[in-house]
Amino acid sequence: MTPRFGDPAVVVSKKNFAERTARSFKVKVRGEEVQGLVVRLGDKFYAYQNLCQHLPVTLDLNDAKFFTHDKAHLQCHLHGAMYQIETGLCIAGPCEGANLIRFGIEEEEDRLVIRVPESVVQK
């Protein structure tokens, strides 16, 4: 799923974006609301659809808590699936081997432009 120019986008400020933190966002794609998250790890940013690959629920259950207790992985707080931050690969839990849906990021001086592929909405 490769984001293209012209895909819906959301802009997130890089200001005060601390190491191993995540921010959630919402964007309309073909009339449907899509939830996403962007994570900072070191000097890199990763963006994914905020949707567990086991059941169609947000990883954080809408409380903005995306990580395992040690912040080493993203975690679905409904049933414990753990995902690598850098790849979105589920490494433990009921959807082991599945991947979070990754969004493209264009990094600018003080902001991130996150491209959300239209294919995330099934119509």
Descriptive notes:
With 123 residues, the chain is an all-beta fold. The chain has a domain at 9-64 and 101-120: Rieske [2Fe-2S] iron-sulphur domain (Rieske Iron-sulfur Protein, 3-layer Sandwich), CATH 2.102.10. The chain is built from no helices and nine strands. Strands 1-9-8-4-3-2 form a six-stranded antiparallel beta sheet, with no helix packed on it. The protein has a three-stranded antiparallel beta sheet with strand order 5-6-7, with no helix packed on it. β6 and β7 form a beta hairpin. The chain starts with 8 loop residues before the first strand and ends in an 8-residue tail after the last strand. The relative contact order is 0.27.
SSE diagram, text form:
Elements: E1 9-13, E2 21-29, E3 32-41, E4 44-49, E5 74-75, E6 82-83, E7 90-92, E8 102-107, E9 111-115
Antiparallel strand pairs: 1-9, 2-3, 3-4, 4-8, 5-6, 6-7, 8-9
What's the Cα radius of gyration? 14 Å
Poorly predicted runs of 5 or more residues: none
**Mean pLDDT rating:** 90
Distance between the termini: 16 Å
How much helix is in the residues?
under 10%
Q: Which CATH architecture of the domain at 9-64 and 101-120 is right? A: 3-layer Sandwich
What name does CATH use for the topology of the domain at 9-64 and 101-120? Rieske Iron-sulfur Protein
Q: From the helix content, strand content and strand pairing, which structural class follows?
A: mainly beta
